[in-house]
């Protein structure tokens, strides 16, 4: 007879997300996941099959988290240069729990694993494609609103802004607020 789950998948995924965010993929043991998620290894494997599959689900959960909590201003219809500036300025004060210097889980994972695992790399690239396309829409809106020149190479600029976002995630771990502000100002000023 199958056993009924006594836990909520979304809640345990959020707990696992925080563990991976702090410790990275390689630094997170199954024992640590059991302890922090509040479920045993059997339950974890029954729901997620293995650590890698759990992590892939965590990356998807993280994408949902940032879409709701970080990207909404840029996803609004007509979002342009003002929203882009606010987005980047807010990226320097991201807070989740008590730790405000964890950076982006996906950027951290890309730095840790790169292309070592094709399934994880696929999730990383899906995340980056989403962000690049979001920046592309914002840049097209900015051209329509005459905020940036009509001849702006939006494809190249969207890729550049993706790199800026990745850089902010890493720089946020060590730079002070003034240095981060300079970084963002230079990046945005090259658009106008």
Description of the molecule:
- By secondary structure, the chain is mainly α.
- It folds into two domains: 1-61, Orthogonal Bundle (Arc Repressor Mutant, subunit A); 70-192, Tetracycline Repressor, domain 2 (Orthogonal Bundle).
- The chain contains ten helices and no strands.
- Helix 9 packs antiparallel against helix 10.
- The longest helix has 27 residues, at 118-144.
- The termini are far apart.
- Mean pLDDT is 90; it is low at 94-99.
Describe the sheet with the most strands.
none
How much is the average pLDDT? Answer: 90
How many beta-strand elements?
0
Give the topology string: H per helix, E per strand. Answer: HHHHHHHHHH
Key terms:
10 helices, Tetracycline Repressor, domain 2, Arc Repressor Mutant, subunit A, 192 residues
Helix and strand topology:
Elements (H helix, E strand, L loop, with lengths): L8 H15 L6 H8 L3 H8 L2 H19 L2 H4 L5 H11 L13 H9 L4 H27 L9 H18 L5 H13 L3
Helix pairs in contact: 1-2, 1-4, 3-4, 4-8, 7-8, 8-9, 9-10
């Amino acid at each position: 007879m199958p056993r009924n789950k006594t836990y909520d998948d979304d809640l345990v995924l959020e707990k696992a997300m925080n563990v991976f965010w702090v410790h990275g993929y390689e630094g997170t043991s199954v024992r640590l996941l059991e302890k922090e998620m509040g479920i045993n290894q059997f339950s974890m494997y029954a729901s997620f099959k293995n650590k890698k599959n759990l992590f892939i689900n965590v990356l998807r959960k993280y994408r949902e988290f940032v879409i709701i909590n970080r990207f909404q201003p840029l996803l609004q219809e007509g979002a342009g240069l003002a929203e882009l500036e606010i987005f980047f300025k807010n990226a320097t004060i991201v807070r989740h729990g008590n730790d405000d210097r964890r950076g982006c889980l996906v950027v951290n994972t890309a730095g840790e694993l790169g292309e070592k695992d094709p399934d994880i790399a696929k999730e990383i690239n899906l995340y980056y494609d989403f962000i690049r396309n979001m920046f592309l829409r914002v840049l097209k809106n900015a051209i329509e609103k005459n905020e940036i020149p009509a001849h702006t190479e939006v494809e190249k600029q969207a890729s550049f802004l993706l790199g800026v976002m990745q850089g902010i995630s890493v720089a946020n771990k060590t730079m002070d607020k003034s240095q981060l502000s300079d970084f963002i100002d230079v990046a945005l000023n090259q658009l106008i």
